[in-house]
Amino acid sequence: MTDRIEKLKAFLAQSPDDCFLNHALALEYVKTGDEHHARTSFEKNLAYDPSYVATYYHLGKLLERTGHEAEAVATYEKGMQVAKAAGDNHSYNELQSAYEDLVY
Description:
Serine Threonine Protein Phosphatase 5, Tetratricopeptide repeat; 6 helices; globular
């Protein structure tokens, strides 16, 4: 796993604002249980490009797992707004499902 993380970091050194690479790095951190670095990477993505829809779902799930339910709810809500504005019905439905599972 750490080999993949190191490779992604090397790619990001060349393209630091690449949301796809940053998202992939965050997912690798999730796999290794490094939730702090995963959250930082997800949040970096949203700070750079709030329209990167995939990040909302995965950040929301991470927030749920770490006991930050109110933040997870807010993340899902914002993600649904972004997905709807982008016309991304698949992501909207995934975010809505995660939201409803948490809230209801």
